Amino acid sequence: MLDLIKAMLSTLLILKLSHRPFYGLDTLTSANYLLPAVTTGLAALRRSCPQFNITHRWLVDPAIVTCAKQREVIQDLLAKWYYLDRRPRAIPIILLGGGCQEAEYANQLANAWNVLYITTASVDATIRRKSQTPTWVTTSAISLDYGNLFKQLLQRYQWSSLAVIVDPYSININQSRNIAGQIQRRLQADGFKVLARDFASLEDPISRELLAVIRESCRVVIYCGGARSLRNFFISATDNNMTDGEYVYLAVTPFDHPSYGKFHWQEFDNDDEKIRAAYRSLLLLKIYEVSNGSNDVADMLSIWKNLAEMDERIPANLINNLPLPYLSSTHMAFQLVGQVVGDLNSTVFRQPHQIDGTQLARRMINKTFTIGSEAIAIDSLGVRLVGVTLQQFSSTSQKLETILIVSETLNGTLVWQYKAPVSWFGRSSFPPNEPPCGYLGQSEVCIRRAGQGILVEAIGIGGGIVIFTGTLVMALIVKMYGRPINPGLDWWMLEPDIRWSLAHRKSSSLRRTQCMESVSSLL
Question: FRET label pair with 297: which of 75, 323, 373, 410, CA 20 to 30 Å apart?
């Protein structure tokens, strides 16, 4: 029996591609952050697949100090292993953390060699073109199709014109560029009017001019960058009267981590009150971190911290700032491999080299796996389904609170769960895509209305002038007859001396008439 078990043992080779910051390059997806999760993931894989001889190796180049260099050499690293060091009878699996937009370069070779390829942190839009990525699966927590998400979000609120702004100095610039690129390409392809620009700093003349361009073209701004840069952007927007509720600012951040900054108005400086008012115009989008609160991750967190403390290559300041979604998705990748490989039958064990990457990937896609106490779903494109939250500033709590959760389903639809009604500067709806009088207040309708208003005003003024002139003429006429203007109610009555003169003349005429009648009667 023991000999039979030994005969069934096969080799499962795990290749972990990484840009190790111990040599100078540091991102949240680099080895010094993910190493604890790789350690626990390998241990879990070995426990679930005791019938396999599981080995692993890192493919790194000490000369890599930039993301550009990582993209340049990644195929060379893989090719050297495949053609010189690969063991033919092993089942190879390539794992990549990513973070330098190199995932597509690795996929080109994994696809050509028909090797299972799993990304655990970053992902590229190419994965959704399955004819080019038959062996690619991702467990990344930020694998959402941001282009489709924003398309549906903008359509839901009838916004069709927008600006996509990127912070070019963000520590996670490649990630920001990737998200912004997804949004821009999808929206432009679907007929949206998109303005794509960088916002560098308050001192940059081009950045200052950017707000004037936004004012002329849209009222919705999508911001991809860190919290500090957003604060500077809001200072400039407030100074230009662009945070009064007419504009909507949608900021995108993967999850809470010091490297992204703290999205909060209070930094105890002179701009706090200005930023607090500006945050009323903000909607913050980030991944729905339900998994981070689970018992599984809570249990693993202490283990990951202990492993980080014992590894002298990991800086002490990183131990309490581990990127949990990335560690969780890395550990999860090993567990996913364990479930799939563990289900292979004995025939496969005797001929493991006949199992290719496409076959292994097909065992993962369009399925839901139970890992620990969590259900992890991989859709038909090999992408892990995740959710995002939309948060809005609360005047009551003075912080951002979730108003909407959007989650994906295996059939490709998005589920919208509202946690609070829309409340925007005292209104129950967000502002329209374009103000009633246009972006510059010069629409033809409003110009005509303004012209009609001027005409009515002119008529009113003209009528007033006529009435005033008539009154003045009447006053002058009365003045000519020696009568002072009397504002009383009896202005129409004659003066006493005039009344006596008229009465005296009438009495004298009557006496003359009576006298003549008496004389006539005597004759």
Answer: 410
Measured N-to-C along each axis, helices 324-342 and 31-48 cross at an angle, to the nearest 10 degrees, of 30
| Sign of the alpha-carbon torsion through 514, 516, 517, 522 | positive
Joined together, the tokens standing for residue 103 give 């995932």
Residue 431 CB coordination number (10 Å): 18
CB 196 within 8 A of CB 168: no
pLDDT digits (tens, 9 = 90+) for 54-102: 888 888 887 777 878 888 889 999 999 999 988 878 889 999 887 778 8
Adjacent-strand bridge partners of 91: 12
pLDDT tens for 130-176 read 999 999 999 998 888 999 999 999 999 999 999 999 998 887 888 88
**Is a pLDDT exceeding 70 seen at residue 267?**
yes
**What does the alpha-carbon distance between residue 161 and residue 222 come to, in Å, rounded to a whole number?**
11
Other beta carbons within 10 angstroms of residue 61's beta carbon come to 16
**DSSP secondary structure string for all residues of 95-145:** EE---SS-HHHHHHHHHHHT-EEEESS---GGGG-TTT-TTEEE--TT---
Residue 497: partners with Cβ closer than 8 Å, 6 or more residues away: none
- Residue 138: what residue type? T
Encode pLDDT of 395-430 as tens digits: 899 999 999 999 988 888 999 999 999 999 999 999
| CA dist., res. 494 & res. 483, Å (int) | 9
Which of 2, 14, 1, 8 is closest to 41 using CA atoms?
14
Global pTM? 0.79
Taking the C-alpha atoms of residue 227 and residue 261, their distance in angstroms, rounded to an integer, is: 5
CA distances from 141 to 183, 331, 376, 412, 512 (A): 18, 12, 11, 17, 123
User: Is residue 171 classed as helix, strand or coil in its secondary structure?
Assistant: coil
pLDDT band at 8 (very low <50, low <70, confident <90, very high): very low
